Amino acid sequence: MSKIPKNLTDKDMLRDWVEEESIEDTFQQAEQAEKARAKAAAGVEPPANLAKAGFNAPLMDELGRTLLQLRLELAQKGATGVTYKVKRDGESVVITPKYKI
């Protein structure tokens, strides 16, 4: 066993010491990452022409997910060349897919 050096300064005693990562540190890093993701997601703006029509980010996200889900269902049926036709029916807007099977 080696001798313990005497009369060292605090800086010299802690020179090679590295703190082990605790579970508290892990949780703090996860919270910071979540805050950063939320801040990045909140900063996403819809294109200017859609923002003028009243489309906000959550609405754009919901519309995009719904259209993607429809496109995937049509692809499972073998549809190709999927496009959409948009028409207004009174106070409703109807989006109809056009495709070839």
What features would you describe in this structure?
By secondary structure, the protein is of the alpha+beta class. Helix content is 49%, strand content 19%. The chain contains 4 helices and 2 strands; from the N terminus they run H-H-H-H-E-E. It has helices at 10-13, 23-42, 48-52, 57-76, and strands at 80-89, 92-100. The chain has a two-stranded antiparallel sheet with strand order 1-2. The radius of gyration is 29 Å and the shape is elongated. The model has no long low-confidence stretch (mean pLDDT 84).
Strand and helix map with partners:
Layout lengths: L9 H4 L9 H20 L5 H5 L4 H20 L3 E10 L2 E9 L1
Antiparallel strand pairs: 1-2
Mean pLDDT: 84
Q: What is the spatial order of strands in the main beta sheet?
A: 1-2
Number of helices: 4
What percent of residues adopt helix (DSSP H or I)? 40-55%
> Which outline best applies?
elongated
**Total number of β-strand segments?**
2
Structural class: alpha+beta
Stretches where pLDDT is under 50 for at least 5 consecutive residues are none
Report the order of strands and helices.
HHHHEE
- Percent in strands: 15-25%
Distance between the termini: 80 Å
What is the makeup of the main sheet?
A: 2 strands, antiparallel
Radius of gyration: 29 Å
